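Re: the request from the purification team.
They wanted to know what the chain is likely to look like in 3D before they choose a buffer screen. I agreed to run a prediction and write the result into the notebook, where they can find it.
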Amino acid sequence: MAEYNYECVKIEIRDGIGWAIMNRPEKRNAMSPQLHYDMDDALGRLETDPDARVVVVTGAGGNFSAGQDLKKFFRELENDPFERKKAQRHANSWRWQRLYNYDKPTIAMIHGYCVGGAFMQLLATDFAIAAKTATFSLSEVNWGILPGALVAKVISDAILPRHALYYACLGDPFDGDEAARIGMINYAVPEDELEAETVKLAERLMKKSPAVLRATKQAVRQVRTMDFDQAYDYLAAKGQSIKVGDAEDSYNTGLRQFLDEKSYKPTFEPFKLGTLLSDQRD
């Protein structure tokens, strides 16, 4: 198993799940430049680590993240344009470009505070589960700035405009149930069930064909900004590309198990993985 050693990020891999944990608990995981550097590197490595089939992004010490560290990220870099640019580049890389197009399924597990800039990684992940007691806040308006980087954009894309305007312009906090109601997360659960529910979702995802799951999540994201003709051509090409290098030969394996072996019901469950490899060993 690969070793991951970082100052502001903790990586754990258990039973196929890679846990990418923002680790500044004394600051409620407010994001410093070093945290951005660490997380960008860690997620890049986890993406190709065979021991991690699903990646969960969360925070240590009872909180997701209190947003950007105002002192470390802003004030201390005001007179250091090189380091400021470097920090911005890594912050945007892992919180959006890397996570949004990630090869593996990703889940945000939210507890405690999820504030401001932390909405980027929340909405870049494929799925999100929160504790009912979590506190979400787009508080930028309360301390005199815009929801910057891509926060205003990703919020506007993720939820209805009335909800986005209400919470961005008022800065009011809201809990996990409200986050689920407005579509910011998939669902909220009691805090003592949060990790178990996250593991349960990850285990369901690991039963799917990795190639088909990767193509499906990427396709759903990409077609949102296409017209119908573009989406039709893109999805046709994407469907063909799944068959290239698919270790499960998912198309033929799924048809065989459903039509010939009658061993599963695709409305309720995925086809069984690993049967092609078993056949080859036999």
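For the purification team: The chain is about 45% helix and 15% strand.
Please add any questions underneath this entry.
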